[in-house]
Amino acid sequence: MSESLPAARKRRVWGIRIRLLVGFVAVACAIGLMVARSANKSMVYYVTVTELLDQNKGRDLTGLRVTGTVVPGTIERGDLQVRFHMTDGTKSIPVQYRGVIPDTFSEKGEVVVEGDYHPGGTFEANFLMAKCPSKYEMSPDEEMPANMPRSST
Predict the structure, then answer these.
(1) What is the separation, in whole angstroms, between the first and last Cα of the chain?
(2) Cα separation of 55 and 46, whole Å?
(3) Are the C-beta atoms of 105 and 82 separated by less than 8 Å?
(4) CA separation for the pair 91, 30 (Å, rounded)
């Protein structure tokens, strides 16, 4: 009878360990699933205007990020609202955006818009970013100012 008591304790200890292990694995799987789902929803890829227009029409075209250049002469500004056409050099789409318009937003400027493409052909942006224009870069024929520190490379 004394030998069966330690065997019962061993079985009970192993039973507790197995339950803890199963519980730990279940919690780890649940956390991993939540992280994977949230990462999938927050991922937005850049597409060009041509890639957007060539997409399958039955596909969900929401939450897209499109990059391109503002077509000159198409900007219509309002109070915290702007409408313009953007192109990638091949095709163009009309874009409407409501919100704060960046200072660097201008004609022929590179922009990134994020939002939804509607079946009517208009891209409704909820985010607008104007890329820094090349006018901030020094042209090859310009000289660096004398008081500007030079890099060692």
Answers:
(1) 83
(2) 13
(3) yes
(4) 44
Whether 88 contacts 117, CB under 8 Å:
no
Contact in structure between 66 and 112 (CB atoms under 8 Å) = yes
- Of 82, 77, 53, residue with least CA distance to 66: 53
- The dihedrals phi and psi of 70, each to the nearest 5 degrees, come to -70, 130
DSSP category for residue 136: G
Per-residue three-class SS string for 52-78: HHCCCCCCCCCCEEEEEEECCCCCEEE
Per-residue pLDDT of the chain (153 residues; tens, 9 = 90+): 455 667 777 777 788 889 899 999 999 999 999 888 877 666 667 889 888 888 766 666 788 899 999 999 999 998 889 999 999 999 999 999 999 988 888 888 899 999 998 878 899 999 999 887 555 555 566 665 666 565 555
C-alpha span between 85 and 70 (Å, rounded): 6
Q: Residue 113 forms beta bridges with which residues?
A: 66, 128
- The 8 Å CB, 24+ separation contacts for 98-106 are 99/126, 99/127, 99/128, 101/77, 101/128, 102/128, 102/129, 102/130, 103/130, 104/130, 104/131, 104/132, 104/133, 105/70, 105/130, 106/70, 106/130, 106/133
